[in-house]
Amino acid sequence: MATRQLSLLNLATVPFHDDVAAMIKSAFEPLVSAGDLEIDLSGTKFDLPTYELEFVKKTAWSPVTHKGCQFLPANYGVSGQVFVESIQRKNFCTDVTRCDTCETLFRNSKDELGKQIGQVAVHEIGHLFGLNAAADFKGADVEGHTGDAANFMFAITRHKDFQLPELDSQRTRKYKIVKGDWLSKIALRVGFWPPNEGWKLLYALKGKDGKSNKELLRSGDPNLIFPGEEIWVPDIPQRIAFTRAAELQTKSFTAEQIATMRAFVQAGKTIQ
Questions:
Q1: Does one domain contain both 131 and 182?
Q2: Nearest to 243 by CA among 101, 90, 140
Q3: Do 229 and 257 lie in a common domain?
Q4: Which domain range does residue 192 map to?
Q5: pLDDT on residue 132
Q6: CA-to-CA separations, 4 to 13, 34, 48, 218, 267, in angstroms, rounded
Q7: For 140-198, how does the pLDDT look when each residue is reduced to its tens digit (9 = 90+)?
Q8: pTM of the shown model
Q9: What's the distance, CA 11 to chain centroid?
Q10: Over 60: is that where the pLDDT of 272 sits?
Q11: Are residues 121 and 230 in the same domain?
Q12: Confidence band (pLDDT; 50, 70, 90) for 131?
């Protein structure tokens, strides 16, 4: 049986690349020690059957993933690619029109940025090695993802406590309306877009008490709000803390996942 190669392209350009490489080698050590896999760190293209993981430095941002000063990538990578800039720039802003109110999700250290790049790399390699269906392990969705933050195939949108900001009543805080505010203006600041529709999301947002902003505004008219009134808006520090803790939780593969990947690699299968 031929040993398959995993080639890591552009690894040397990645922040904390030594730590990223160490995580990849540790995660797939069972396949290496069994003689099923070799990992090449130089980015060489081999003649033998090869799997390639490319570290991509640039992200194609869109109006959906880049709102003012806020960068919210739809994902950190796809099978065979890691979007390094997406991981670096992912942030949350109290006011998306003011960059001084934004905080990067993964701070520039090996324990945050380096760890997340490594975990995303392992996740995408897992897809390359066949973890792409609910049958791969218990609790996975149709794409092989899980809500278990301790698993390499974790996707935060699968987490039991995840909600989109416009639906997340638990991670909310009160905002006091000031002169010159209107709902569309506030909605724009908190990132509820598009600008001509965002006010509807804000108007419907429920807070920790279960009441929506529609119920809190005394006029009953979204076009008529008064200074001093308080409404619910997303609590950004809480959202950062929740997301950071879930994403950076140390992860591993299950024995079932290892067995699936070994069988896939031994058979020389590929999804590329």
A1: no
A2: 90
A3: no
A4: 172-234
A5: 87
A6: 24, 12, 7, 67, 10
A7: 677 889 999 999 999 999 999 999 999 999 999 999 999 999 999 999 999 998 878 99
A8: 0.94
A9: 20
A10: no
A11: no
A12: very high
List the structure tokens of 8: 């890591």
**Other CB atoms within 10 A of residue 193 CB:** 18
pLDDT (0 to 100) of residue 125 = 97
Does residue 240 fall inside a structural domain? Answer: no
pLDDT tens digits along 212-260: 999 999 999 999 999 999 999 999 999 999 999 999 999 999 999 999 9
With beta carbons less than 8 A apart as the criterion, state whether 76 and 247 touch: no
User: Quick one: 36 and 106 in the same domain?
Assistant: yes
